[in-house]
Amino acid sequence: MKFNQYALILGMGMFFCAGVANAAPSNQVPKTIHLTANINDALFVSKPDGSSWYDVEEVKAVDYKQQKFATTLPIRVWSKNESFKLTLAQPLKMSNGNYEMPNANITVDTGAGSKPLATGTATEIKQTEKSGSEYDQVYNLNINLDAPVEANGLSTGGNYSGDLVMLFEPVVTGP
């Protein structure tokens, strides 16, 4: 055989082998998970441990009558700025499908007293605990709701759930 024939046979062998090597088994399905990370050098909000956030928390009855419900969640705010803004992004609605718990009242305890949070209205909070050139402080977030009133013979009993969505923003101060 001549050199050209050897080259042709070798080339065809490589071509067919490459196709076999790249063919994935038909029973495999590739999947991709999109991951994100947010690094914010101006503001960080967490539980007091400094590394996690709340997932599901229980709002408990204040007494045996189960007419008022409340919980307090400590939140830690680290910031380079002396102040930050806190806003309810949407009203807190706790529902069981038939009823909604009325009179949701959300407040945050600050060095200047308890401040109410309202949907769409930013509440400015001044930090008082400075650590070097940064601020690092724990606040109590207070959540209070009333039990619904029974109507149309439907029981108010059951599990109620809802989302508390808040927006934390740094306040930029001029030089």
UniProtKB/TrEMBL annotation:
Q: What is this protein called?
A: CS1 type fimbrial major subunit
Q: Which residues form the signal peptide?
A: 1-23
Q: Which Gene3D superfamilies does the record match to this protein?
A: CFA/I fimbrial subunit E, pilin domain
Organism, as annotated:
Serratia fonticola
Keywords on this record?
Answer: Signal
